Amino acid sequence: MSLNFLVMHKERNPNGFSNLPYRNRRRNWNLIRFLHLLHCRRPHIRVAGFLHIFTLPLRLSLSPVMSAIKHPFQLTSFSSSSPLCSLRASLLTLAVLTLLSFTYLSFTSLHSSPPSSASQLPVKLGGLNDAADEDISDVYHSAQVFRLNYAEMESKFKVYIYPDGDPNTFYQTPRKLTGKYASEGYFFQNIRESHFRTEDPDQAHLFFIPISCHKMRGKGTSYENMTIIVQNYVEGLISKYPYWNRTLGADHFLVTCHDVGVRAFEGFPFLIKNAIRVVCSPSYDVGFIPHKDVALPQVLQPFALPAGGNDTENRTTLGFWAGHRNSKIRVILARVWENDTELDISNNRISRATGHLVYQKRFYKTKFCICPGGSQVNSARIADSIHYGCVPVILSDYYDLPFNDILDWREFSVIIKERDVYQLKQILKDISDMEFIKLHKNLMQVQKHFQWNSPPIKYDAFHMVMYDLWLRHHVIKY
């Protein structure tokens, strides 16, 4: 029986329910009260009303008992068993109805309460874009975690640089800030320019071993001699300072971008096992440990042309690659797609004789730039693609991409297995225009993370590397 039906019955019968038996009239008016309470918007009134209705059977069954207590000499007026049976039934009824009422109230309050959790709100990272506070959470695994941890890093993180070593040989200062190994040089310079550096080793979270294999390579040092130089330098630090022995080097790190640096340090297994390696060639099959080591982005700076972006309508070429065939995957890429009419694949680097900056200008006209691994898994072409606004296609197995634990690379790049190179064109053609526009838009958001500056600026490549180091220092226990 609904509330409307009872009201209509009241209108048709001026005497209401007065012609019904008393028990039926009481039951129907309780039902009306119940239906009214269901529509009541005040929770405290609703709860009080429900309790009044649901306890009515109990109160009625207890009335003979209470009367007997007040008038003990009138016990003969009722039998000894019926009140107890009635009381037991009423208690059972009350328990069932109370359970139903609280279930209903919980259900309605759950659906009527407004969302108050911070996780339900869009996360915006203030300061990542000075022009506008945009919602860029798509390019990060967790934008809110990154923002909070980054702020903590900037306020607390300290690094001690060992002062040992002649800057005119292989230590302390970078070889140069240009070329495809510029990332190593920029880090050596930036760490000295930043507020992360401390002169007090007791305040340091991490210790930097400032030896540059790039400088060794520039002076013509052989691989064998590099290994000896690295080993002698580190052993000298161990014997002179107490800090290495606290963790056996777990809170120490080294930086090298040239692949010769990886070889030189591998000659000292104790260093590779414990210390944090920041390298440009982070391949899983050459001893790189993702949860310990850090992938350094290989950036060829200075860039020849300005950054690209917001120009999707000008990108008419499906895919582009030109370079040396110095790896198996590059040989296959050139052989399979060199003569394709939709993919611009060159069998070698583009000669400067063809025109000024022809290679760089190709990036501006292309949707997807193919980035196969070379002699190592990494390639400076990835940073080039990001800078010029061309969505990178990562074609390199076992590659721990830079800032992979911070950035969601699938939101601004295309990652395919080397074995899928034969389906490359179809994979790219299956990406819709809307998907490409989204990838391109997200690519613009991460450009700042792959740019080196001197002095360093917030959220640039240097700060992202420092953030990765900050994350790793948390797992070190003294």
TrEMBL record:
What Pfam families does the database record attribute to this sequence? Exostosin_GT47
Domain named Exostosin GT47: residues: 154-430
Q: Which family does it belong to?
A: Belongs to the glycosyltransferase 47 family.
Protein name, per record: Exostosin GT47 domain-containing protein
Q: What keywords would UniProt list here?
A: Glycosyltransferase, Golgi apparatus, Signal-anchor, Transferase, Transmembrane
Q: Where in the cell is it found?
A: Golgi apparatus membrane
What is the topology of this protein in the membrane according to its UniProt annotation? Answer: Single-pass type II membrane protein
Q: What is its main location?
A: Golgi
Q: Does the keyword Cell cycle apply?
A: no
| Transmembrane among keywords | yes
Organism field:
Citrullus colocynthis
Against PANTHER family, the record matches this protein to: EXOSTOSIN FAMILY PROTEIN, EXOSTOSIN HEPARAN SULFATE GLYCOSYLTRANSFERASE -RELATED
